[in-house]
Amino acid sequence: MDIWEQLYQAAKPLYHPEAVNDFIYAHNVVCALQSKSGEIYTGFCIEGLSGTINLCAERVALLNMYTTSGETEVKRLIAFRDAPPTGITGMPCGVCRETLLQFSTNNRNTQIMADYATRQTVTLGSLLPDWWGDIKKQN
Ligand SMILES: [Zn+2]
């Protein structure tokens, strides 16, 4: 079992879309990531009727890592919905991309699973070229 399958298997049980109550809906996207130290952390999306409460699975996994260990660097991550691990997986949204990079600029090297079947990945840095924070650091 390679690391990507380990990540997939860690996140898969979290996929069970459900209404927590009349206001909160959760578990319809899941994520597993591997931190710099090698630990695996998971997360699932949490959405509320007021949009600002919404948290994607990627950010929940990141915050799980950070609040549990204090780590900020992510080696690799996978996010997906109900699809079996035979094809295209989810790309992080703009907010998640930005959050990952603000937690550590080294996360530009984070490998993000793009196609599970072929193990094609992309780096976070390739998804955020000319990041505004690099300009800020030069000033
Ligand atoms: Zn997101």
From TrEMBL:
Domain CMP/dCMP-type deaminase: 1-135
Entry protein name: Cytidine deaminase
Sequence similarity: Belongs to the cytidine and deoxycytidylate deaminase family.
PANTHER family found in the cross-reference section: CYTIDINE DEAMINASE (PTHR11644:SF2)
Metal-binding in keyword set: yes
InterPro entries: APOBEC/CMP_deaminase_Zn-bd, CMP_dCMP_dom, Cyt/Deoxycyt_deaminase, Cytidine_deaminase-like
Keywords: Hydrolase, Metal-binding, Zinc
GO MF assignments: cytidine deaminase activity; identical protein binding; zinc ion binding
Organism: Levilactobacillus koreensis
GO BP terms: nucleobase-containing small molecule metabolic process; pyrimidine-containing compound metabolic process
CDD domains: cytidine_deaminase
Any single GO CC term annotated in Swiss-Prot or TrEMBL for this entry: cytosol
